[in-house]
Specification:
Elements (H helix, E strand, L loop, with lengths): L7 H16 L3 H8 L3 E10 L5 E12 L5 E8 L4 H18 L5 E7 L7 H15 L8 E5 L5 H15 L23 H16 L8 E5 L3 H12 L3 E7 L2 E4 L6 H9 L12 E3 L1 H5 L5 E4 L18 E3 L8 H9 L3 E3 L1 H4 L1 H16 L5 H26 L3 H20 L4
Parallel strand pairs: 3-4, 3-5, 6-7, 6-10, 10-11, 11-12
Antiparallel strand pairs: 1-2, 2-4, 7-8, 8-9
Helix pairs in contact: 1-3, 1-14, 3-14, 4-5, 6-7, 6-12, 6-13, 12-13, 13-14
Bound molecules: nicotinamide-adenine-dinucleotide.
Nicotinamide-adenine-dinucleotide (NAD) binds next to α7 and β7.
Length: 418
């Protein structure tokens, strides 16, 4: 096992190196797979509502395009930088390959706190960023989607900006769009539904009863909130959730739907939700639960706290929540980790379905979408679990080996353009 220093890019490179070593890839192929195909940094000037000019920095990285157009979300977060976007783009490459989806990997973002901007400022910023990306993105080139700090409205603005520039409506340029402009039934809850399916697959694998399973979820955003609701509806006891301001805990179980309504009614945080005790994000990671779901940001389980994690199963709703060193500690302790590229692959699966429906201009029912999602998740989970068991490796290494080998195979088959 190769170790690293803890940044998201470093963690991603260590995971690739472990897979490359296990697969016996030569150094040249390893280097080809590590190096992003294209990385761009753009300046995003934004005129604030008060007349001040603010200049932000945006990124888009297309990590690998061997198996299809780039695919990956757009993140608005103050700590976003090129290295983080490169790591997230690399994980998208392996995720799409593991899920059996004909896409490469990409990711983008702007270093900004979107909460400090008005809706009009967010729209101007998004349109300017999208205009800078017009030469790079497109239904056959690179297809963005929502991520941390962005939503379906952001995707609508990008789709409109791109369509205006190119002179034709291009619904397939982004996924995670509103239904009224070519979005897919089931997309909004797809990542969370996939997380729930991954949790259930892990419970089956370890012989646990969902009705006797306690769950803690860090991050109560697009992924975490609906994952909490679906797991609760399916019989698990969700005992703690958190957001950037802190967490709430009730050993008897929370009602996620009521908490979602509480936020929709105007509460700014889960903290203070009636019938709960407050806990910190650090406490939540260390709670004595059966299943821990980090669903916020990367690098939250590190060498500092990995020894204190008490969950028996970790299902990575977020991308890269466990650093490479922490991963080794947890693995040595026998904790089952369902890795991000598998656990949150439901989002890109239904993004793919949305793109297919846009291209065909023919739309499926929510049941059809959910059935196809379940089939992809179950296939990817069982392939990774089978490889892990037969070769005596972790689920993370197995999932990476499957994704990485498929991309390497695509490179070998296409050959090298001189
Ligand atoms: P989001 O912006 O909707 O929600 C993020 C949540 O995390 C919020 O509740 C926020 O308050 C919380 N948070 C932010 N910083 C935190 C911190 N320092 N400590 C604790 N909580 C914090 O984002 P999302 O779309 O739910 O994405 C969450 C994770 O899931 C990210 O890693 C993202 O890359 C990954 N992911 C998202 C999708 C998708 O479809 N949205 C798909 C696959 C993976």
């Amino acid at each position: 096992m190769i170790l690293g220093s803890g940044s998201a890019w470093d963690t991603a490179c260590v995971q690739l190196a472990n897979a490359a070593q296990h697969l016996g890839l030569d150094d040249g192929m390893h280097e080809l797979l590590r190096t992003p195909r294209r990385s761009i940094t753009v300046s995003v000037p934004l005129l604030r509502d008060d007349g001040q000019l603010m200049v932000l920095t945006g990124y888009r990285v297309q990590h690998n395009l061997a198996r299809g157009p780039g695919k990956g979300g757009i993140r608005y977060h103050p700590s976003t930088d090129l290295d983080e976007v490169k790591a997230l783009a690399m994980w998208m490459t392996w995720k799409c390959a593991l899920m059996g989806i004909p896409y490469g990997g990409a990711k983008g973002g702007i270093a900004v706190e979107p909460g400090m901007l008005s809706r009009q400022e967010r729209e101007r910023m998004t349109r300017r960023y999208a205009a800078e990306l017009v030469p790079l993105i497109g239904p056959e080139k690179d297809i963005p989607a929502p991520d941390v700090g962005t939503d379906e409205q952001t995707m609508a603005w990008i789709m409109d900006t791109y369509s205006t520039h190119t002179g034709h409506i291009a619904t397939g340029v982004v996924t995670g769009k509103p239904l009224s402009i070519g979005g897919s039934a089931g997309r909004a809850g797809a990542t969370s539904r996939g997380v729930q399916l991954a949790v259930f697959a892990a419970l089956r694998q370890t012989g646990r009863d969902p009705h006797e399973t306690t769950v803690a979820i860090q991050g109560f955003g697009k992924v975490g909130a609906l994952a909490a609701q679906y797991l609760h509806d399916a019989g698990c006891r969700v005992v703690a959730v958190s957001d950037v301001k802190g967490g709430v805990h009730n050993p008897q179980g929370l009602n996620p739907a009521a908490l979602i309504r509480h936020l929709a009614d105007g509460a700014e945080t889960v903290v203070g939700f009636p019938g709960t005790d407050s806990i910190t994000n650090d406490d939540l990671i260390e709670l004595g639960v059966d299943v821990l779901i980090p669903a916020a940001l990367e690098g939250v389980i590190t060498i500092e706290n990995a020894d204190r994690v008490r969950a028996k199963i970790i299902v990575e709703g977020a991308n890269g929540p466990i650093t490479a060193e922490a991963d080794r500690i947890l693995d040595d302790r026998g904790i089952l980790i369902v890795p991000d590229i598998l656990a949150n692959g439901g989002g890109v699966a239904v993004s793919y379905f949305e793109w297919v429906q846009d291209i065909q201009a023919y739309f499926w029912s929510e049941d059809e979408v959910n059935d196809r999602l379940a089939a992809l998740m179950e296939r990817a989970y069982s392939e990774a679990a089978m490889l892990a068991t037969t070769q005596g490796i972790s689920m993370r290494n197995a999932a990476h080996c499957i994704g990485v080998s498929r991309v390497a195979e695509a490179h070998r088959t296409r050959g090298l353009y001189p």
